[in-house]
Amino acid sequence: MVGAGTFWLGVLTAISPCPLATNIAAVSYVGRQVGSPRHALLAGILYTLGRTVVYVGLAALVVSALLSMVTVSMTLQRFAAKALGPLLIVVGAALLGVIPLPSFGAGLSRRAESLAAHGVWGAAPLGMVFALAFCPVSAALYFGSLIPLATAHNSRLILPALYGIGTAVPVLGFAVLVAAGAASLGSAYERLGKVERWARPATGVVFILAGIYETLKGVFLVF
């Protein structure tokens, strides 16, 4: 259940407006820079791999750093378990637009433009740089949900990897469309946008309900 939820967090991150627009623009631009559909697909795969490696690696490092402090690791895990409920409520409120969040890493996106000119070999580092340019929603999902979940479940790699795979699936789909020269790229973007418009608030409601349950169970010991 936790694994499936973590995978969905990755998918929701990828189809959120800011990452979705960035991913499509990057994959489309790099695809136009190369000379064949095969190279365009390879560039899309490398771009996706670059993003996924950063998401998984950063989460693994943060969670490992938290859990490797032997003297306080059990305290951290207990704290993470108790803090998970309130965090889920806050993230759910952010997904519903109740809590405004600041943007992160906008400068990284601007500096990454030069990498796209390198075609296939610039795709992976481009994906890595864009992965670090967290938008408000992606930052909330990543730092407010994935990191606490992975810490609470002592998962240095499995949950971050499932999140990374979730972020990769929609981007790989667009990479295939770009490589095929599909005229339906725009309609696919619109469909994902429509999915995101209901998926984000629905996920926000689920997060708030789950957060209330976890808070009552972990903090007030109701269940």
Summarize this, please?
The protein is 83% helix and 0% strand. It is mostly helical and 223 residues long. The protein has one domain (2-218).
Given the C-alpha coordinates, what overall shape results? globular
How many runs of DSSP E, i.e. beta strands? 0
Give the oligomeric state.
Answer: single chain
Report Rg: 18 Å
Q: Distance between termini?
A: 19 Å
| Average pLDDT score | 76
What does this structure look like?
The protein is mostly helical. It contains ten helices and no strands. Helix 2 crosses helix 3 (37-67), helix 2 packs antiparallel against helix 7 and helix 3 (37-67) runs parallel beside helix 7. It is globular and about 55 Å long. Residues 104-109 have low confidence and may be disordered.
